[in-house]
Structure formats: C-alpha cells, structure tokens
Amino acid sequence: MRSHLLNDATAEQYRRSVTEGVERVASRLASTRQPFTGVTPDELAPLVAAVDLDTPLGDASAALDELEQVYLRDAVYFHHPRYLGHLNCPVVIPAVLGEAVLSAVNSSLDTWDQSAGGTLIERKLIDWTTGRIGLGPAADGVFTSGGTQSNLQALLLAREEAKTDDLAKLRIFSSECSHFSVQKSAKLLGLPPQSVISVPTDRDKRMQSVALAAELELCAAQGLTPMAIVATAGTTDFGSIDPLPEIAELAAQYGAWMHVDAAYGCGLLASPTRRHLLDGIERADSVTVDYHKSFFQPVSSSAVLVRDGATLRHATYHADYLNPRRTLEERIPNQVDKSLQTTRRFDALKLWMTLRVMGADGVGQLFDEVCDLAAAGWDVLAADPRYDVVVQPSLSTLVFRYIPTAVTSPAEIDRANLHARKALFASGEAVVAGTKVDGRQYLKFTLLNPETTVHDITAVLDLIAGHAEQYLGENLVHAS
Ligand SMILES: *Cc1c(COP(=O)(O)O)cnc(C)c1O
C-alpha cells in the first residue's frame, strides 16, 4: 500500500496516474456534445449504491473506469456553451494547472511552517485585489472557501466593531435581492431574525437608497444600532449593482460598517472597459470576491478583503501548538490569525498561475465578453414576442419568461415555464436556471462562458418555447 503514497520513490507512478486521469477528462471534454445527459437521480443512484467501498479495485485505471460510469459520463459540464444555469464558470487552464500543483504539494495556508512561499503568494494576491478595489494602505484580507464564508467573516468583523453586547439591538441592511448568506450569517452570529432589514429595490433591482435612508433613520429613532449595510455588486439573480456611492455616504453618516458583496461582480475589477461600474467600492469596510465566479477559477477560490487589516484580529485565536503569541512578536506570517478556517487549501495558487499566464486584462476581457453577450441576448429577448424579459443586464444574467399568445391564467404560465426548465434539463440539451420575480416563475440565463454565442441563446429560446408550447397544448387537450 505504500506504493500509493506520493514521494520520491513513487514520482513515476504519480506522473502516470495523474496523466491518465487528465487523459480521461480531456477525452470527455472533447466528446461532450451537450452540457448534461439528463440522467435522473433514480437512474444514477443504483450505480453509486452498488459500489462496495470496502472492496478496493487496487489500481487507478480500474477506478477511473468505474468513475466514468458513476460520475464523468453524467456530470453537468460547465464548459459547454449551452450550460446557462447557475453562477458557475468554465475554468481557465492555468488555474487547473495550479490546482494540480497545489493538491500534490498540499501546503496548508494556516501557518508559515506549513506553507512558506504559499503564504507570501496568497498575501501578494490579497494586496493585488485590495489595490484593484482601492481599499488603501492598511487593507488586508484572506482567501476563503466561498462567498458565503466571506460574507460571514465580514459580518463577524462588523458585529465586533459595533461594540455592543446587546445583539438584539443590531441591525443589518441589505436589499431584497441580496444573497441568503446574509441572513444565514446573522443567525450564526447570534442575531435575531428581525435583525436583517430587507431594503426594497428599484425596477432595475438595485437597492433604493432613499428607502435605505428611511430605514436607517427609523433604526436610529428606535435606539437600535446599524451594524452593517450590505451592498450587493452583482446580485445573484439579476447582476444588478447597488448604488455604491450613495450607500457609502449613508454608511458614513450613520456609522454603519459597509460591506460590499461582490461575489459575482468582482470580475469587473479586471475588466478593461467596465471597472467604473464598481465606483464607490473603494469606500467599503469589507468586500467579498468570488474568483470562482467571474475570474474563471475552479471551486473554491474566494476572498474577504478589509479596509483596516487590524479588524481581522476579531478572528484571531492563539494555540500553543500552532500559532503561539510569540509568533506575533517574531513577525512570523501566520494566515490562520486572519481566517475562520484552520487547515486551508492554497487556492490562491490558481489565481496566481492565471495572472502569471494570462494577466488581469486577459481574465477581464473574458468577463467583458460575457457581459457583451448578455447585452446582445437582452436585445434578442426584447424583440421576441414570445418572451417577457426583466432588467437590462449590468453583468451577465438574463431573467425572462415565456408568455403564450393564447390567454391563460398566470398560474398556468408559471407552470409552463417551470415545465420548460425541467424538460430542458431532462433532455440535457441545455441547462438554464429559474427564479421568481414578484411571485411569478421566471427563467434565467447566467452567461459566464465566452464560447456561448447569440446563436446558442436563440436556439435555447426556441427549445424553451417548444417545451412550454407542448405543455400548454397537452393541458388544453386535458381540459377539453
Ligand atoms: C454566489 C454568491 C454568494 C455565495 O458565494 P458561494 O461562493 O456560493 O458561497 C454570495 N453572494 C452573492 C451575491 C453570490 O452571487
């Protein structure tokens, strides 16, 4: 069994084994004709259930053969241009290379004595990101597992900086389109459910700053503490960007921590043409970025950035066996002092390789391309009488729904759209997402693949209309 340990004696086996895995994935990618096979949980579950984990296959080739059946054949492939579902991106090759390296070396970024150069690389990327945001000379941050964790950590800092023990008095303001991790964080931080105030959005799904001002005023009048305002720079559903300068103004006026959730919109930081859409982000106290959304990085790759690095001390605990207090005096860079995690992947390496090979403009151009595609897709939808489209995109999502020509009930239109989404997924020809707008069922394209074309968009719209029409036709037959 020692032959499976990666070391000097097994370097050749490592090379062969990983190369074989790469070959399998490469041929899978080359032969994949649609984003999904349409397999159902009922079809796939028996194959996984039949695997006896206590009877190993002994060699990698056999395990890869099995993996073809239980995973690779039916996986959902984000690299396919007709995957238009959630906020998942096709990944860039330099980042995948970084992933292979970081897994094999297996540094852990909690302490210097488990990572050395890895720590310095992560710190340099944090500085690069805070520089692009414009957070100033005292800024700092740390890589995290994702936007959810970044938001949680930012709100932990905000709670500690609010300097009150009366958690029931704290209030967090975020728009009705903000990510649910804001509410989840509030709960984890011991705040009551009413602590998160949902601020209405305008017709472009941007937080209404007038409504925010009114809520802040009410909060003050009630003797409550405005702990944080969470501005979203790229809402998950609409890609809408809250008015950051106005929010920054209000945060300063009411003494609230300003957090910008740029999990999705962070790609603009590298955009050669659209960086101005984030103007005002430089006034944030903390920022969430998900490189695994708009920097074309493999999951996971995210960071939380703060204006004042000293605030990260709220996450600092010392352990004699890991990061004793003396390491502070000795100025040993231990990233665990800034993180909610302890053992932590060297995800930063993926972004490092990406920037070293492609450069920031290279990544930003890819994000620009999908934003351009969304603008073109909006034109297509707006001109198509079969569809109702909401919100002209700032980033790369399109939210729309099929509207039949024949008069039907709103509930029936909802069902037709939901059916179309499910039928499309079952066919595997394309994957789209869904959401509700004002209580009604809508469909969503999240465009993060620069290989997707306007032709793909029109083709998928035809498929959706076909499924919706078929559903309505069949129901008409049933009804008569
Ligand atoms: C995706 C997303 C998150 C959560 O990020 P994860 O990486 O999925 O944990 C938070 N906020 C917004 C706006 C998002 O789009």
From TrEMBL:
Q: Which residues cross the membrane?
A: none
GO biological process assignments: amino acid metabolic process; carboxylic acid metabolic process
- By its UniProt entry, which Pfam families does this protein fall under? Pyridoxal_deC (PF00282)
Q: Which cofactor does it need?
A: pyridoxal 5'-phosphate
What the entry lists under CDD domains is as follows: DOPA_deC_like
**Among its keywords, does the record have Transmembrane?**
no
List every position bearing N6-(pyridoxal phosphate)lysine.
K293
Keywords (alphabetical) are: Decarboxylase, Lyase, Pyridoxal phosphate
| Top-level division of the source organism's lineage | Bacteria
What is one term from the GO cellular component aspect held by the record? cytoplasm
On whether Lyase is a keyword of this UniProt record, the answer is yes
**Which GO terms label this protein's molecular function in UniProt?**
aromatic-L-amino-acid decarboxylase activity; pyridoxal phosphate binding
InterPro entries given in the database record: Aromatic_deC (IPR010977), PyrdxlP-dep_de-COase (IPR002129), PyrdxlP-dep_Trfase (IPR015424), PyrdxlP-dep_Trfase_major (IPR015421), PyrdxlP-dep_Trfase_small (IPR015422)
Q: Which family does it belong to?
A: Belongs to the group II decarboxylase family.
Name assigned to this protein: Pyridoxal-dependent decarboxylase
The scientific name of the source species is: Streptomyces lavendofoliae
